[in-house]
Request: fold
Amino acid sequence: MVVSKEEIHKIIENYDPKKITIATVCSHSALQTFYGARQEGFKTLGIAIGSIPKFYDAFPKAKPDEFLVLNNYAEILDKADELIKKNVILIPNGSFVEYMGAEIFRDKLKIPTFGNRKVLSWESDRNKQREWLEGGGVRMPAVIKHPRDIKNPVIVKYFGAKGGRGFFVAKNKEEFYNKIGSTGQKFTMQEYVLGTRYYPQFFASPFKRDNAMQTKSGSVQLMSIDRRDETNIDEMYKMGTIEDMRKQGFVPSFVVTGNVPVVLRESLLPEIFDFAEKTCDKAKELFDGMIGPFCLEGVYTDQLKFYVFEISGRIVAGTNPFISGSPYSALTFDKQMSTGRRIAEEIRYAISINQLKEVIS
Amino acid sequence: MVVSKEEIHKIIENYDPKKITIATVCSHSALQTFYGARQEGFKTLGIAIGSIPKFYDAFPKAKPDEFLVLNNYAEILDKADELIKKNVILIPNGSFVEYMGAEIFRDKLKIPTFGNRKVLSWESDRNKQREWLEGGGVRMPAVIKHPRDIKNPVIVKYFGAKGGRGFFVAKNKEEFYNKIGSTGQKFTMQEYVLGTRYYPQFFASPFKRDNAMQTKSGSVQLMSIDRRDETNIDEMYKMGTIEDMRKQGFVPSFVVTGNVPVVLRESLLPEIFDFAEKTCDKAKELFDGMIGPFCLEGVYTDQLKFYVFEISGRIVAGTNPFISGSPYSALTFDKQMSTGRRIAEEIRYAISINQLKEVIS
Amino acid sequence: MVVSKEEIHKIIENYDPKKITIATVCSHSALQTFYGARQEGFKTLGIAIGSIPKFYDAFPKAKPDEFLVLNNYAEILDKADELIKKNVILIPNGSFVEYMGAEIFRDKLKIPTFGNRKVLSWESDRNKQREWLEGGGVRMPAVIKHPRDIKNPVIVKYFGAKGGRGFFVAKNKEEFYNKIGSTGQKFTMQEYVLGTRYYPQFFASPFKRDNAMQTKSGSVQLMSIDRRDETNIDEMYKMGTIEDMRKQGFVPSFVVTGNVPVVLRESLLPEIFDFAEKTCDKAKELFDGMIGPFCLEGVYTDQLKFYVFEISGRIVAGTNPFISGSPYSALTFDKQMSTGRRIAEEIRYAISINQLKEVIS
Reply:
């Protein structure tokens, strides 16, 4: 059972809105989260495992006011009272959710958290993700149910594949059967959409913000766009073809190691904003709405159509090139605005109109 | 017949220089154009087809003061009087010119336009482009007149090819004959220069600006450099070799979907500035000069020689990563300067010295 | 014999700390060096060969106050007195060192220079570089002593190879023997680490700066991270496989033509900071310490391990995208801080605490 909103809202009724502390785990996009929170006037707390990360001394503007050092992530559950006493609002990020486990985060972590924790159920299950996005009208690559239906390139993902390993691509049916072998491992399969990858990062507000595009459930902004570096697929071609490398025992992988800033052709912006709006509207219908940052991860084909292969329902590391703002945020905000800062700004705004509950669960 | 400068100059004699409105179509590089015009104190007007693009609400700093909504681009011709009453100066961009048609833009659009509209004749015709650039001393890939002359890789472009499709590359004569097939389609052919692509964006002024390199005909600045994303060629290698993909019916294409910011090795700057100067000087000789933004699109080989394969004679979308300035513009201007803003700044400057006619045609 | 520190320190005893001039050769990273020096209040002098580079007029904020025009780099040696009279501190960069020759720079150039000139001996010799980095605990690709030991892909570098040519990669032993041919040229060989390239740029201070991570010998900061463009390897795949191209007489090369800004996955920062610290600590042990900018050039594998294949012991051109600061420097400094400016800031700081000798040799 998802931690109930009512329970969390009771907790924040006792919070002193002048003494809120923004907290997250010290990884992923934590630097911009702490820096942004401080820019918006909040206290900050970093959750670290084992010891305080030494390199934070080199980033004094992002170093949290305080650290909570734990032996493992599960210990956070025991620290709820202590954190609540400090008026903590947790900011979920990819590392935070992965390290704790999405279910534990969703069902056990009784600490006020920015955003709608129900999104965790919808993004972690591929079928529900498709119900959400495709159901809302967002274009996605087709699912291929059976190998006999392979007519075009496919991407095959083994069950339990994690962190960019356990995938393969096959140009056609023959290649599929060669690569799948006889291990009997379970897998899912999607059309492989040939094109160039873009990861536009949006911010959904439950409020009708006046510097945003209005949606049924609030409003939405485009914060920035990146492209992920994926090792070892990105540079494998320098060595030989993927087939050659595979023969020699090298398996192409898609492990993310960093991010490159990009911009999208301006005539394509209407479509991605439309997809963002549909994502927000359908989220409202399905689970009380998308709140805060999300990213539509997709591919532009040479027919200039965007196919979304995945959604992340919280801040992604692809926002890290934009700690001082992006070419898009420059057109929206009067200040240099990272996504990390935007989260803090949303909390600040919600407090100012006495609606903090709208953004916390 | 190109709209005569004299006719346009008569129109702007009646303009109130304190009430100029900067206008362009809502696509391509319009966001930075509107934002930049406002930064320089101008009113702005966006020309949109069908309806006001909803996503502009998310970019309030770039949202024009006013929209002119049309059913199609041809209608702009009927709106000349209305636009002239608003003291409009049009900013041509790639979408604007393509959607209207270069000839109609050049010969029929009797509305004051930034830059020299004669450039449209020189950049849209491959032979005239070569007369301009090679004639001026800019290095270009060699033209291959006949397939029997193919000794090195070539890029083949079918007549009427548009938007990144209708090209192919061939490593050698054999591959050329395989790929060209027997369709009898007409084509042109150039040496394929192997190297890394750079798209340096310059700004030519007819004035001897004091923060610019002086040319015979005025002065020139380097605003920024990008690299274009081209789908599907950019990521095709992840699937298999281009030959493999082709066998399966996939045709490599070079459709631009976005842009990545880059910088050039500093020791290479003298050459690209030299090419920019030659481009400006020859333009003066051939057609009264290059005025405003232009881009030399080329390739650096491993011999560190730059080959220009194309010129764009107006603002390119590759300036979009630099809405808050670039590593180069930071060395030239005291303000954050996009190319869009630079256009407005040039108009502002021309007004201040009572020479608006020099930059309008 | 390396120019003695004592001799240089005697020279700067006579320097007027209020009239320091920052000088370097007009190439590589000179624009940010001059701009940054001026931002920190120093006079600037550009050393140019033949004539003053015309394009500097387009970068007035980076144009040095004064030029010293020489016929060749060797002439700098004759200008020592003149430069010393102007209270010059030289900033070494890649072009400066390469054009003069590392040995002449190190042993003959009796002009006060920023940093520790002993580093030149340690980075120009592959064996000493390995003693320094591997000896300090930094992970490097394995050296392969004999072709019979090739089990995985290797990168082979001919003796005297320069500027990105004279390398080749081989997937296996067979390919190695095919490619090495029978020329009898001498070579060295390393494990080829498959992954994505990152070039993190650090700044080592001999002082315990309060916005830096402390090391045994002072402190260290992360300034920025780039990825190098390498022609023609980067875009060769668009033409055909590397094998195909080679058959046709094209040799893959790794000539640097520019740089793309990137960020690294945040969870990988502890490791690169750890490597930076180890680099500094070992430098202290071996040769009185690393002072100023350095870059650990490496590859992240899909096991998320960083392998450093080279170190540059001074400012690299990869800092050029970050003339107005980087996503990392934004977390460290209150001002927009390039590496060029950081050098000037270090000199300014050293003067303020009366310790200029600590950063000059």
